[in-house]
Amino acid sequence: QVQLVESGGGLVHPGGSLRLSCAASGFIFSSSHMSWARQAPGKELEWVSGISVGGTTYYADDVKGRFTISRDNYKNMLFLQMNSLKPEDTAVYYCLRGSTVQSTRGQGTQVTVSS
């Protein structure tokens, strides 16, 4: 079955960086559009970034220029490099198989940005 396992979250100061990883299995990763989404406390799940089968990348306006999505089709891995983190980036981050927040997702990894 489809499995998505996120890692790399943690506590970071404002302005800091984190790199999230997602290990995918149970489906043909190289043929799947993949995304990241996040859910802050008390808020709905929010799409953050996506990457197509061909490697085209997409970003939400509030992370554009700070976050970089990438994929390794040989290792079935998805990544999200997050730089210049802000307190408002605090959320649980999810890896998704697909292009929308309704897509299958993993259990998530907590990212907390605080001084």
Structure description:
The protein has no helices and 11 strands. The protein has strands spanning 3-7, 10-12, 18-25, 34-39, 46-51, 57-59, 67-72, 77-82, 91-97, 104-105, 109-113. The strands form 2 sheets. Strands 2, 4, 5, 6, 9, 10 and 11 form a 7-stranded mixed β-sheet that branches. The chain has a 4-stranded antiparallel β-sheet with strand order 1-3-8-7, with no helix packed on it. Strand 7 and strand 8 (77-82) form a beta hairpin. The model has no long low-confidence stretch (mean pLDDT 97).
Topology at a glance:
Elements: E1 3-7, E2 10-12, E3 18-25, E4 34-39, E5 46-51, E6 57-59, E7 67-72, E8 77-82, E9 91-97, E10 104-105, E11 109-113
Parallel strand pairs: 2-11
Antiparallel strand pairs: 1-3, 3-8, 4-5, 4-9, 5-6, 7-8, 9-10, 9-11
Highlighted features:
115 residues, mainly beta, seven-stranded mixed beta sheet, four-stranded antiparallel beta sheet
Q: Helix/strand/pairing class, anyone?
A: mainly beta
Classify the oligomer.
single chain
Would you report the number of β strands?
11
**How would you sum up the global shape?**
globular
Major sheet summary line: 7 strands, mixed
Radius of gyration: 13 Å
Beta content: over 45%
Order of helices and strands: EEEEEEEEEEE
Helical proportion, percent range: under 10%
User: Taking all residues together, what is the mean pLDDT?
Assistant: 97
Distance between the termini: 40 Å
Low-confidence stretches: none
